[in-house]
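pipeline/complex-builder :: batch 7 item 3
reading input block
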Amino acid sequence: MVLHWSATLTAGAYTPGTLAKVERETTVGEGTLREFLHDMLLIRRFEEKVEERFRAGELPGFLHVAIGQEAVAVGVCRAMEEDDIFASTHRAHGHTLARGSNPRRVMAELYGKVEGVSHGYGGSMHLYDVERGNYGANAVIGGGLPAVTGAGLAFKMRNEPRVAVAFFGDGATNIGTFHESLNLAQLWRTKTVFVCENNHWAESTPGCQHSPVWDDMSKRALAFNMRSTKVDGQDVEAVYAAAREALEYARSGEGPVFLDVLTYRMHGHYIGDPQVYRSKEDREAAAYHDPIPRLRERLGLSDEEFEAFDEEAHRVVDDALEFAKSGTDPKPEDALKNVYA
Amino acid sequence: MPELTYREAVRDGLVQAMRADDRVFIMGEDIAEMGGSMGVTQGLLDEFGSERVRNTPISEMAIVGAGIGAAMAGMRPVVEIMYEDFLTLSLEQIVNQAAKHRYMSGGQITVPLTIRTQGGAGWSPGAQHAQQLEAWLVHVPGLKVAYPSTPQDVRGLLWTAIHDDNPVVVFEHRLLYPVKGEVSEELEPIPLGKARVVREGTDVTVIAIGPLVHRALEAAKQAEEEGISVEIVDPRTLQPLDEEALVASVKKTNRAVVAHEAVTRMGFGAEVTAVLQHQAFDYLDAPIERVGAKFTPLAFAPVMEQYVIPHAEDVLAAIKRTVGK
């Protein structure tokens, strides 16, 4: 059966009265929006290049791209303060780049090189960059949520103005770590923000098949009495504003916040996924909600202006690719290092 | 030398570590007002307050996982899993997260987390409160595992575990909590990976862990009456393992018995046996004997439970087999 989640999507699924209202006083100027476009385009072109090189057989393992979800990564990561930290998922390229990791080092990791952000020990699904606040991308669904709760607890105990942010998808809301983490975080009011990137697909299983609240994940947070904000994940400005508000609330020590972000996965679960489970209409709907043309329109960019952004993104990606390909292979016996501190 | 029970020694190790370093705090089920289901953490809430002595929900994944995150963020948490049977609930966090963050990050992350747990049979708790699962965790690179058998060892090893920059799982045994033993006046940290010769002997080496150290001591006394001189070595740490000390003892006595309360099949003794046959093959005068529980869950009825777990007589029988008596 070919599935199509959007066919049953109810419009304006916003639980009234209980959710935090995002004040638009956190809106950004045009200059910052242009930076957001720069970052989103960089992520898009980076992931397109990764797809291309994977299909060419150059990249080991398997990879997951987040094409269509760039506004979430950029909106949230740009809203973080320098000392904030985050944990990501198997779909981590966007978060990592948006937080400012060097594209050269991110690409080098995908090639398994010493120069990579995880020095070749992690790969696409385990991107770490502690200097940039990246405490690890996790390949176990929901696996990073307890640690983000614990880091938020540490910040609270030490009275530090820092927040720990967890990215995860709608698929993660059904696993035990999600429920245990949200419960503990709210109970202890840890300095944590939970970012649910609801792209309505858990691999090949649509939201309507995996969750009774698939079209309103905020209900999960409400069950824990957690402050929750619903946001259009294709509108980077809105994501940024909601993330700022959530981060400042968590930073104040008042408690964690759940960001219920509606977004779209334009490609398959993994690179090469034929998506036999997904209707043409659903894929078209996802493409229709592409956040990049939307931001371009918001900025009123001419073709020439947009081209200039795009050329810059291509240039950075090409440079990263060249750097990665000429990187250093680890020695085989390096596999025995870093097991213990 | 002062005497403490094993329970008091664990408590003293925790208290001293918490007094010495604000980064040390404890989390677990019922550990605050109640003082833990085994009474180990009694009094800690009064001294350190509810910020550092945290009662948790019944959420083993979150208990361990929050410990991991706090450790990654610079704390030195000690989390308690009430029964090691419940470790199974948190294994994802222990095996995939705690053990692997440092590796997957290429050395950027440290996880200085201590996981305390206890278990063991002998008081009819039934099949879900009595297992010995230490061997499972020794199988995971990135973890360290200790199983102290005396008050002095548990205090010193716990201290070291808390100050180690790696995740360390410390196994305690329910029946050892009331056992008294001498401890040094000052807390003496015990390095991970150093075995202790519990009793010197010349005819056979018994390598025992946890409660089997005490049962081996009983067996050794009886063996002595029959003219067999038994050496007992307690590895104390299962990972890293002090292979050198075990091998040296067996090279001296030429015979070996390995003993633990967990089931024999794939138990820790299997690993020790492999180490010995490889490193002391030419010195062995008899097959290495293994003592452990029979391959069945723990039954409730005391007669069945006692039938399943290993006793001093089982150790003694194994000792005799190695010397052909």
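note: Residues 1-25 of chain A have pLDDT under 50 and may be disordered.
queue -> next item
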